[in-house]
Structure formats: structure tokens, C-alpha cells
Write a structure and sequence with these properties.
It is found in: Cytoplasm. Belongs to the Fur family. It comes from Liquorilactobacillus mali KCTC 3596 = DSM 20444. By secondary structure, the chain is of the alpha+beta class. It has helices at about 5-15, 25-30, 40-50, 60-70, 115-120, 140-145; strands spanning about 40, 75-80, 80-85, 95-100, 105-110, 135. It folds into 2 domains: about 1-85, Winged helix-like DNA-binding domain superfamily/Winged helix DNA-binding domain (Arc Repressor Mutant, subunit A, Orthogonal Bundle), CATH 1.10.10; about 95-145, Dna Ligase, domain 1 (2-Layer Sandwich), CATH 3.30.1490. The strands form 2 sheets. Strands 1-3-2 form a 3-stranded antiparallel sheet. A 3-stranded mixed sheet has the order 5-4-6, with no helix packed on it. The longest helix is centred in the N-terminal third of the chain and has 14 residues, at about 5-15. Bound molecules: zinc ion (3 copies).
């Protein structure tokens, strides 16, 4: 999806959830739209926003990031204690998983969810959260490695 379209979709989602479309939110969306195939450190988003809007507090920036996550505009993950975000890869089938390249960091969407498989092994239990990621080397990196 091209950046312009991605921002349009996000603006619609924000409006639907009664959030004001401020220039700060638009700037954040523009920045985040560069990260649909890759995660970016939340601290980098904060740094970027604080540079353009020095009057914007870190709390506000972090709150905006959290709001974007809650309405499904961005996806978040924490690994080794570092919070990272990326633009939602899939506004249609929202629930999905990722294959992450260990070499270039590229994130690819995987639509199959293994939750049913695990639920069958845990009769009587209620699973209310799960994280599932696949790691390896992406096709592009394998191709480059062979040349
Ligand atoms: Zn995704
Ligand atoms: Zn790769
Ligand atoms: Zn799942």
C-alpha cells in the first residue's frame, strides 16, 4: 500500500474512533508510514516527533502511539525489553502473524493463526493472549547471499 493511501485509511479509523485529526497525528502517521515492512523503535518515533514539535511532551507522544495501537493502525511488539512499532500490514484481516528476517529485518505477513491447534491441546482452558512469530532469512537475503 502506498504511503498516501495508508494515511487515508488511518485517518478514517481515527475519525471513526472520535479522535481529532491534528497536525501532530498526521506527522506521526507520515513517519510511521515508512515502516510497514519493518519495525521501528518507539524511542525513535518519540525523538522524531519531539524534534518537529518541541512543545509536545513525551507523555503525549507515547499516548498517541498507544492510541494508534489500540485502534489497530499500528502493531507493537516488545523484544529484549525494547518496544517497537510498525504500520499495520493488514487492515482487512487484522489478526495475523509475522515472519521476520534476521538479516534485513523485513516483516512479512502470515495469515494463518495456530491458536486453534493449541486450544485443542488445552481442553477446559481459556487462552486470552498469544504471541507467535517466525524467524529466519527472507527470500531476498537468500538470493543476495548466493550471488
Ligand atoms: Zn502485521
Ligand atoms: Zn531479509
Ligand atoms: Zn494468532
Amino acid at each position: 500500500m502506498e504511503a498516501k493511501k495508508m494515511i487515508e485509511v488511518a485517518v478514517k479509523i481515527l475519525q471513526k474512533n472520535n479522535y481529532k485529526i491534528t497536525k501532530q497525528r498526521i506527522s506521526m502517521l507520515e513517519y510511521l508510514s515508512h515502516f510497514q515492512e519493518q519495525y521501528v523503535n518507539v524511542a525513535a518515533v518519540d525523538k522524531y516527533m519531539h524534534e518537529i514539535y518541541p512543545g509536545m511532551s513525551h507523555n503525549t507522544i507515547y499516548r498517541n502511539i498507544k492510541e494508534f495501537q489500540e485502534v489497530g493502525i499500528i502493531e507493537q511488539r516488545t523484544r529484549d525489553g525494547i518496544a517497537c512499532v510498525k504500520y499495520q500490514c493488514d487492515f482487512v484481516h487484522q489478526h495475523h502473524h509475522h515472519f521476520i528476517c534476521k538479516k534485513c529485518g523485513k516483516v512479512q505477513e502470515v495469515q494463518m493463526c495456530p491458536l486453534d491447534f493449541f486450544e485443542k491441546q488445552l481442553p477446559g482452558c481459556e487462552i486470552d493472549d498469544h504471541h507467535f512469530e517466525l524467524y529466519g532469512i527472507c527470500a531476498d537475503c537468500i538470493r543476495l547471499g548466493k550471488n
